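Sequence only, no structure available. Ideas?
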Amino acid sequence: MRTADLIELLARDVSATPPGVVSRRLLAALVAGGLVTFAIVALVLHCQPLAAAAQQSWFWMKAVYTGLLTVTGALIVRRLSVPGSRLGTAPLAAVLVVLAMLALGAGQILSAAPAARLTLWLGQTWKICSPLILLLALPIYACLVVAIRRLAPTRLARTGAAAGFAAGALAATLYGLHCPEQAAAFVATWYTLGIAAATAVGAISGRWLLRW
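Reply:
I predicted one. C-alpha coordinates follow.
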Protein backbone atom coordinates (compact mmCIF):
# COMPACT_ATOMS: atom_id res chain seq x y z
CA MET A 1 0.00 0.00 0.00
CA ARG A 2 1.31 3.44 -0.91
CA THR A 3 1.90 5.96 1.87
CA ALA A 4 -0.68 8.32 0.40
CA ASP A 5 -3.28 5.56 0.40
CA LEU A 6 -2.50 4.69 4.01
CA ILE A 7 -2.84 8.32 5.08
CA GLU A 8 -6.16 8.62 3.27
CA LEU A 9 -7.40 5.43 4.92
CA LEU A 10 -6.38 6.66 8.36
CA ALA A 11 -8.02 10.03 7.74
CA ARG A 12 -11.28 8.28 6.86
CA ASP A 13 -11.03 6.26 10.04
CA VAL A 14 -10.73 9.26 12.35
CA SER A 15 -14.49 9.58 12.72
CA ALA A 16 -14.64 6.02 14.00
CA THR A 17 -12.52 6.90 17.01
CA PRO A 18 -14.67 7.16 20.13
CA PRO A 19 -15.18 10.81 21.13
CA GLY A 20 -12.63 12.11 23.61
CA VAL A 21 -10.20 9.20 23.38
CA VAL A 22 -7.40 11.24 21.84
CA SER A 23 -7.85 14.09 24.28
CA ARG A 24 -7.97 11.72 27.26
CA ARG A 25 -4.78 9.96 26.20
CA LEU A 26 -2.89 13.19 25.73
CA LEU A 27 -4.23 14.66 28.95
CA ALA A 28 -3.21 11.52 30.83
CA ALA A 29 0.28 11.81 29.34
CA LEU A 30 0.56 15.45 30.39
CA VAL A 31 -0.64 14.63 33.91
CA ALA A 32 1.72 11.65 34.26
CA GLY A 33 4.73 13.55 32.99
CA GLY A 34 3.73 16.62 34.97
CA LEU A 35 3.61 14.63 38.19
CA VAL A 36 7.13 13.34 37.59
CA THR A 37 8.40 16.84 36.88
CA PHE A 38 6.56 18.25 39.88
CA ALA A 39 8.17 15.62 42.09
CA ILE A 40 11.60 16.66 40.81
CA VAL A 41 10.83 20.33 41.44
CA ALA A 42 9.46 19.66 44.92
CA LEU A 43 12.04 17.14 46.10
CA VAL A 44 15.21 18.26 44.32
CA LEU A 45 14.84 21.96 43.56
CA HIS A 46 12.34 22.72 46.34
CA CYS A 47 9.36 25.02 45.97
CA GLN A 48 9.46 28.58 47.19
CA PRO A 49 6.95 29.59 49.91
CA LEU A 50 3.89 29.39 47.70
CA ALA A 51 1.44 31.04 50.09
CA ALA A 52 3.51 34.22 50.06
CA ALA A 53 4.38 34.00 46.37
CA ALA A 54 0.74 33.58 45.35
CA GLN A 55 0.00 37.02 46.75
CA GLN A 56 2.44 38.64 44.32
CA SER A 57 1.56 39.71 40.78
CA TRP A 58 4.87 38.43 39.36
CA PHE A 59 3.98 34.87 40.41
CA TRP A 60 0.75 34.97 38.42
CA MET A 61 2.47 36.71 35.51
CA LYS A 62 4.72 33.68 35.11
CA ALA A 63 1.94 31.16 35.70
CA VAL A 64 -0.45 32.78 33.20
CA TYR A 65 2.25 33.04 30.53
CA THR A 66 3.43 29.45 30.72
CA GLY A 67 -0.06 28.16 31.43
CA LEU A 68 -1.43 29.70 28.24
CA LEU A 69 1.47 28.23 26.27
CA THR A 70 0.77 24.83 27.81
CA VAL A 71 -2.87 24.99 26.71
CA THR A 72 -2.07 26.12 23.17
CA GLY A 73 0.70 23.52 22.92
CA ALA A 74 -1.65 20.76 24.02
CA LEU A 75 -4.23 21.88 21.43
CA ILE A 76 -1.61 21.79 18.68
CA VAL A 77 -0.47 18.31 19.74
CA ARG A 78 -4.09 17.18 19.75
CA ARG A 79 -4.56 18.36 16.17
CA LEU A 80 -1.30 16.95 14.83
CA SER A 81 -1.84 13.56 16.48
CA VAL A 82 -4.87 12.86 14.30
CA PRO A 83 -4.29 12.40 10.54
CA GLY A 84 -6.13 14.93 8.41
CA SER A 85 -6.82 17.41 11.22
CA ARG A 86 -6.25 21.11 10.68
CA LEU A 87 -4.19 23.14 13.13
CA GLY A 88 -6.71 25.92 13.56
CA THR A 89 -5.76 29.08 15.43
CA ALA A 90 -3.75 27.53 18.27
CA PRO A 91 -0.31 28.22 16.70
CA LEU A 92 -1.25 31.87 16.13
CA ALA A 93 -2.49 32.12 19.71
CA ALA A 94 0.84 30.75 20.98
CA VAL A 95 2.77 33.28 18.90
CA LEU A 96 0.62 36.13 20.19
CA VAL A 97 1.15 35.04 23.80
CA VAL A 98 4.93 34.97 23.30
CA LEU A 99 4.90 38.36 21.55
CA ALA A 100 2.82 39.85 24.36
CA MET A 101 5.31 38.57 26.93
CA LEU A 102 8.26 39.87 24.94
CA ALA A 103 6.56 43.26 24.69
CA LEU A 104 5.93 43.28 28.44
CA GLY A 105 9.56 42.42 29.13
CA ALA A 106 10.84 45.02 26.68
CA GLY A 107 8.60 47.66 28.22
CA GLN A 108 9.93 46.82 31.66
CA ILE A 109 13.52 47.14 30.47
CA LEU A 110 12.93 50.45 28.70
CA SER A 111 11.12 51.99 31.66
CA ALA A 112 13.77 50.94 34.18
CA ALA A 113 16.81 52.98 35.15
CA PRO A 114 19.80 52.11 32.91
CA ALA A 115 21.73 50.72 35.87
CA ALA A 116 18.93 48.27 36.68
CA ARG A 117 18.28 46.93 33.21
CA LEU A 118 20.91 44.18 33.17
CA THR A 119 19.76 42.90 36.56
CA LEU A 120 16.15 42.78 35.39
CA TRP A 121 17.14 40.83 32.29
CA LEU A 122 19.61 38.37 33.82
CA GLY A 123 18.27 38.05 37.35
CA GLN A 124 20.25 35.68 39.54
CA THR A 125 19.60 32.40 37.73
CA TRP A 126 19.81 33.11 33.99
CA LYS A 127 22.59 30.56 33.49
CA ILE A 128 20.52 27.65 34.79
CA CYS A 129 16.92 28.65 34.03
CA SER A 130 16.64 27.56 30.40
CA PRO A 131 18.65 24.31 30.82
CA LEU A 132 16.55 23.34 33.86
CA ILE A 133 13.31 23.92 31.98
CA LEU A 134 14.60 21.73 29.15
CA LEU A 135 15.59 18.94 31.55
CA LEU A 136 12.29 19.17 33.41
CA ALA A 137 10.44 18.90 30.11
CA LEU A 138 11.96 15.53 29.24
CA PRO A 139 9.69 13.36 31.46
CA ILE A 140 6.63 15.14 30.09
CA TYR A 141 7.86 14.80 26.53
CA ALA A 142 8.55 11.09 27.03
CA CYS A 143 4.98 10.50 28.26
CA LEU A 144 3.58 12.44 25.32
CA VAL A 145 5.65 10.40 22.87
CA VAL A 146 4.24 7.16 24.28
CA ALA A 147 0.70 8.49 23.92
CA ILE A 148 1.19 9.99 20.46
CA ARG A 149 2.71 6.83 19.00
CA ARG A 150 -0.66 5.13 19.58
CA LEU A 151 -2.47 7.82 17.59
CA ALA A 152 -0.78 7.34 14.20
CA PRO A 153 0.62 10.84 13.54
CA THR A 154 1.76 11.55 9.99
CA ARG A 155 3.65 14.84 10.39
CA LEU A 156 6.33 13.51 12.70
CA ALA A 157 8.70 16.49 12.99
CA ARG A 158 5.84 18.94 13.50
CA THR A 159 4.14 16.69 16.01
CA GLY A 160 7.40 16.18 17.87
CA ALA A 161 7.97 19.94 17.94
CA ALA A 162 4.46 20.51 19.28
CA ALA A 163 4.95 17.85 21.94
CA GLY A 164 8.26 19.43 22.93
CA PHE A 165 6.60 22.84 23.05
CA ALA A 166 3.76 21.61 25.28
CA ALA A 167 6.22 19.73 27.50
CA GLY A 168 8.48 22.75 27.77
CA ALA A 169 5.60 25.06 28.63
CA LEU A 170 4.27 22.73 31.33
CA ALA A 171 7.80 22.24 32.69
CA ALA A 172 8.23 26.02 32.82
CA THR A 173 4.94 26.31 34.71
CA LEU A 174 6.11 23.81 37.31
CA TYR A 175 9.59 25.32 37.43
CA GLY A 176 7.91 28.60 38.35
CA LEU A 177 6.96 27.01 41.67
CA HIS A 178 10.68 27.01 42.49
CA CYS A 179 12.01 30.01 40.56
CA PRO A 180 12.26 33.22 42.63
CA GLU A 181 12.80 35.52 39.64
CA GLN A 182 10.23 38.30 39.41
CA ALA A 183 11.03 40.32 36.28
CA ALA A 184 8.94 40.03 33.13
CA ALA A 185 12.12 40.62 31.10
CA PHE A 186 13.70 37.56 32.70
CA VAL A 187 10.68 35.35 32.04
CA ALA A 188 10.27 36.62 28.48
CA THR A 189 13.88 35.68 27.72
CA TRP A 190 14.98 32.66 29.70
CA TYR A 191 11.66 30.85 30.17
CA THR A 192 10.94 31.29 26.47
CA LEU A 193 14.39 30.01 25.52
CA GLY A 194 13.87 26.91 27.66
CA ILE A 195 10.54 26.22 25.95
CA ALA A 196 12.14 26.84 22.56
CA ALA A 197 14.92 24.37 23.36
CA ALA A 198 12.34 21.71 24.27
CA THR A 199 10.53 22.45 21.01
CA ALA A 200 13.75 21.97 19.04
CA VAL A 201 14.49 18.67 20.80
CA GLY A 202 10.98 17.50 19.98
CA ALA A 203 11.29 18.49 16.32
CA ILE A 204 14.60 16.65 15.93
CA SER A 205 13.73 13.51 17.89
CA GLY A 206 10.13 13.28 16.73
CA ARG A 207 11.19 12.05 13.30
CA TRP A 208 12.39 8.81 14.90
CA LEU A 209 10.54 8.51 18.20
CA LEU A 210 7.07 8.96 16.69
CA ARG A 211 7.46 6.41 13.92
CA TRP A 212 4.87 3.65 14.01
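The chain has a mean pLDDT of 91.
Hope that gets you unstuck.
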